[in-house]
Design goal:
284 residues
């Protein structure tokens, strides 16, 4: 009996088969992807049309892109489960979705997009896996991405996954991440593969041994932070004077900045020192 599950990640994109066949010889150290078409559609329309989250979500539900109860998509749970599958294939061990820190897109506002445009960034919900000396860092969260990055131009309901290997470097896989035709394509591909390998076992780089995940607190990013204007001095005291100030002519009454490289642990320690905040995003 074969267990094939290509359609579980990336819709019709043949990413899982690629990982355990074409890239089997590579030592993969990073996977980053837009893994949920619903959230990517919502973020695209918020960016292009200037609409707020609630309005775009209703539009997505009308078009059949979002479920009547959309929590699995907008809270990042669907992307989290897909990230767990990718992390399991990358590590060759078992990664539970419950181990992955997950943030959705419900707090993203038009103010965030205004700032993003002012310094040449897009906002995307990413599933990220990074190999390091302590195991694997995993997260699902909205990120600010430079416009020149290939993931920044992935819009509407499309998905894309960037895989980094030790010899090949970056490769990117792009296509429809949802929909009956794309899903059917992946299922038929699995059926053909099963027929080709009839009577044999198709090995998959995964077992039930728990993967070693590193403490997320040690992972280093830059962060974009928004605070009320009256909290400017408090923010500078918490993060130091070397923060990069970000301005937008369309937004008044608040102060925004980008931190230097800082670990997740130290970021949260500093962020909690600010009495009032308006949110933050990681930078890719």
């Amino acid at each position: 009996m074969q267990l094939s599950f290509e359609a579980s990640v990336g819709g019709g994109i043949p990413i899982l088969r690629t990982l355990h066949t074409s890239l089997k010889h590579e030592k993969m150290d990073a996977i980053t992807g837009i893994l949920n078409g619903t959230t990517n559609y919502i973020l695209t329309r918020m960016d292009k049309d200037g609409a707020d989250f609630g309005a775009v979500l209703k539009e997505a539900q009308t078009k059949g892109y979002a479920e009547r109860k959309p929590e699995a998509d907008v809270e990042g749970y669907d992307a989290c489960r897909k990230t767990a599958i990718l992390a399991s294939l990358m590590s060759g061990q078992y990664v539970s979705y419950e181990q992955i820190e997950t943030q959705g897109i419900t707090d993203i506002t038009q103010e965030d997009f205004a700032y993003a445009r002012s310094f040449g960034m897009a906002i995307k919900l990413l599933g990220m896996i990074r190999k390091n000396e302590n195991g694997f860092f995993t997260i699902v969260a909205p990120f600010l991405i430079p416009l020149e990055h290939p993931l920044a131009s992935v819009n509407e309901v499309f998905n894309a996954i960037v895989v980094h290997g030790n010899m090949l470097g970056n490769t990117m896989y792009y296509g429809k991440g949802a929909g009956k035709e794309a899903t059917a394509s992946a299922v038929v591909g699995d059926l053909i593969n099963c027929v080709i390998h009839a009577g044999t076992h198709i090995a998959v780089n995964m077992n039930m041994e728990p993967a070693k995940l590193s403490d997320n607190g040690s992972f280093v990013h830059r962060f974009f932070v928004r605070v009320p204007k009256e909290m400017e001095e408090e923010a500078a005291e918490a993060f130091g004077d070397e923060i990069e100030i970000i301005t937008s002519e369309k937004i008044n009454g608040e102060f925004a900045f980008v931190t230097d490289l800082i670990s997740e642990k130290h970021f949260y320690e500093a962020y909690r020192k600010i009495t009032k905040t308006k949110g933050y995003l990681r930078l890719l």
